[in-house]
Amino acid sequence: MRRLILPVLLVLAGLVLFGQGAYIHAKALLAQVLLERAFAETIVSGRDTKPWPWADTWPVARIEVKRIGAGAIVLAGSSGQALAFGPGHVELTANAGERGVTVYSAHRDTHFRFLKLVRIGDEIDVTRRDGKIFRYRADAQSVVRFDQFAVDPSADGYELVLSTCWPLDAVTGGPDRYLLHATLIGPAQP
């Protein structure tokens, strides 16, 4: 009987850990479906629409990298609560298509997992909540310590920065951030 208890406990522990990991990814996928609906309603109505009644954030943009078939709905703010459900628009940074630097941050193992597939030269479309679409071209990447990443909100250019933890394939957190820099090349053609 004792020989059976340890393997059963190990299997149960493994199932619990697997379930916790699967739950995080399932929540992220379901949230994107609800966020897509809220974003579509925001564009049609012109009003910010929460994805569920108790949400403390709402969709502000959609980013897409068509070459790799990836994208995500971006939420207002970059709090831990917002980042649990999607990329967040970092406070006090420009809106897409406006002068300055637009910064979106997300977790590397969920919503920005696709960043490891983005290449310099790829085009990134950003649809704002008013329905306007802006196209950026990825032109640089960098890795910086989290406490050395600063954005000048009054920068003259039109830049998009996608930020996530580094290294992209790590399992634990660290002090470094991966930044994908992109420059506005104009409104996207329908």
Describe the structure.
There is one protein chain. The protein is of the alpha+beta class and 190 residues long. The chain has a single domain (2-187), classed as Sortase (Sortase, Chain: A), CATH 2.40.260.10. The chain contains 2 helices and 8 strands, in the order αββαββββββ. The longest helix is centred in the first third of the chain and has 44 residues, at 2-45. It is globular and about 70 Å long. The mean pLDDT is 86.
List keywords for this structure.
190 residues; alpha+beta; eight-stranded mixed β-barrel; 8 strands; 25% helix
Question: What's the β-strand tally?
Answer: 8
Helix tally equals 2
What's the gyration radius in Å? 19 Å
Element order: H for helix, E for strand: HEEHEEEEEE
Which stretches of 5+ consecutive residues score pLDDT under 50?
none
Shape: globular
The CATH class, by name, is Mainly Beta
Largest sheet, spatial ordering of strands: 1-2-3-4-7-8-6-5
Largest sheet: 8 strands, mixed, barrel
